Amino acid sequence: MKLIINADDFGRTRGINYGIVEAIKNGVLSSTTIMMNMPYAEHAINLAKKEGITSIGVHLTFIEKSLSLGKTLVDKDGIFKKYPELMKEADIEEIKTEMRVQIDKLIDMGIKPTHLDGHHHVHLYSLKMTEAVFAVAKEYDLPVRVGRTGRTTRTGEEIVIPSFLKTIDLFEDRYYADKVGAEDFKAFVEDAMIYDVVELMCHPAFLCTDTLKSSYNYPRLTELDVITSDEIKEFITSKGIEIADYSVL
């Protein structure tokens, strides 16, 4: 099995940035996705360049400040509308434009993105969003975190993977919240070993004042401890698992 271990939220806070770099340099983390509309995105990119980290995708983000300011996407202050309202009112072409702006900003800063996914799985929230991200992925020839097995939107609509789309066989998203110990990690990976290419999502971080403001904070530190532990490194070696990134697709 080829296992992609991807950290979401690069660029959100300095603590998250430093934690992700630590997990790549001294742990088993193999990939990350960046939130280009966040205040520490440039800080993240500078760290990545300094450390030679290149496996960076775009964590498509529709919270806080919009980069494109599409009129159906934002309120009067340029802040994205809340998800239920956003999904109902957003124009699909403005959704695509926002995605392109986020991708292009990373490219303009000297990083070629490896793949796309979505903050809060926004790319799987509705068929409108899913179809938009698939179309933009085709334009940029980028894989998307979807998984070929049993995917539906949050409203229960079946997601049909188009023939052109590169994606993993399985997306493992259970490693989160109260399920981030070493035994959880090992159990989820063992469950996935019947597949060829699997992504396991994670959120490692050091804590800082901005990270502590997030509703998801202390478990990030546990994730960092697990992903950099000798126990997990030895487990992966013992199972013959190949740590990979989206370039294997």
Automatic annotation (TrEMBL):
SUPFAM superfamilies listed in its UniProt record: Glycoside hydrolase/deacetylase (SSF88713)
Record keywords: Carbohydrate metabolism, Hydrolase, Magnesium, Metal-binding
Keyword Hydrolase assigned: yes
Molecular function via GO: deacetylase activity; hydrolase activity, acting on carbon-nitrogen (but not peptide) bonds, in linear amides; metal ion binding
Classification via Pfam families: YdjC
Alphabetized InterPro entries for the sequence: COD_ChbG_bac, Glyco_hydro/deAcase_b/a-brl, YdjC-like
UniProt xrefs under Gene3D superfamilies: Glycoside hydrolase/deacetylase (3.20.20.370)
Biological process (GO), any one: polysaccharide catabolic process
Cofactors required: Mg(2+)
Protein's UniProt keywords contain Metal-binding: yes
PANTHER family reported for this sequence: CARBOHYDRATE DEACETYLASE, YDJC DEACETYLASE FAMILY MEMBER
Protein's UniProt name: YdjC family protein
Source organism of this protein record: Sebaldella termitidis (strain ATCC 33386 / NCTC 11300)
